[in-house]
Automatic annotation (TrEMBL):
GO molecular function per UniProt: DNA-binding transcription factor activity; transcription cis-regulatory region binding
Annotated SUPFAM superfamilies: lambda repressor-like DNA-binding domains (SSF47413), Periplasmic binding protein-like I (SSF53822)
Domain (HTH lacI-type) ranges: 16-70
Descriptive protein name: Transcriptional regulator, LacI family
Protein source organism: Fulvimarina manganoxydans
Keywords: DNA-binding, Transcription, Transcription regulation
TM spans (from-to): none
InterPro entries the UniProt entry points to: HTH_LacI (IPR000843), LacI/GalR-like_sensor (IPR046335), Lambda_DNA-bd_dom_sf (IPR010982), Peripla_BP_I (IPR028082)
Amino acid sequence: MDEPVTRRSRRTRQTIKMSDVAAAANVSPSTVSLYLRRPGAVSKRAGVAIHDAIERLGYVPNLMAGGLAAARSRVVGVVVPSMRNAFFAQTVSAMQGVLSDDGFQVMFGNTDYDDDTELALVRAYLSWSPSALVLTGLHHARPTRDLLHAADCPVVEMWELGADPVDLAVGFSHTEVGRAQARHLIRKGRRHLAFLGARMQDDRRAMQRAEGFAAEAREAGIAAEIVQHIKPASTEAAAALLAKALSINARIDGVAASNDTLALGLLFECMRRGIAVPERLSVVGFGDLEFSAFSNPSLTTIRPFGDVIGEEIARLVLAAVEEDARPARPAINTGFVIVERGSA
């Protein structure tokens, strides 16, 4: 789908030089250079002063050769929160497939939902003067967000749409996903609902799905429980979540899982307990992972278009970098569909 493009408005920022850091830390530029290459080779006192100056000034070292300091590398830095989720791999693979044809390399990092790790990855990527940065979600700690706003390259936030993206966004509404899960269960006649989620204290997008699910149920006059497990999705977590949900309300007859891995664990646990699916309990997942069509019963789930997200991101990056242009609308909604199968 072609969209009208406008000339890209470049961000500008005052360039912080190594000499500025040296002056702020009251050391020589060579000491700063040594610290950046081998922190342990400078004195502790100098190291602390240099570190504080870097943080205060927002300095990002440029690791490209001196003569190329104004150039951009052919690197696109990508940050995902988890390598356990196959749909992120699908997105990165699709993105790389398009970008590699134009000579770009994708640099891939995993935060495990840790803000400090995300900040470190963004700093590392910026030091290579990337052609673009791609991050998962719209929520970042303040230091990371400040760096992203100051970056002189396109920034694309993926797998989520909402208010106030840093620059460009490609994804969909997770709140609407949760609402769609609830609507499907309600249409199937389910009146005692629960959203079962793993690690939602870290995974904000899963929590948005849970909140959308509860809101849809509430508007239909149906109570819905949100039940959480602090560990990542697994068969063990699914068993614990189902037990907790049934202890809260033994009449629960419809559940949505925060992802398909958890939903598969719920099917296993229902089989172990002798709970008939979907007759006694209906289950809806999220992700449409490969096994979803082949579980017993097959899994009703939400299919996000991870490959389309990757392709759209690549298109935005190529337009911004090679054509110096961007879509008139900086947010692209890739949508989702519900895939009805045997579990609901």
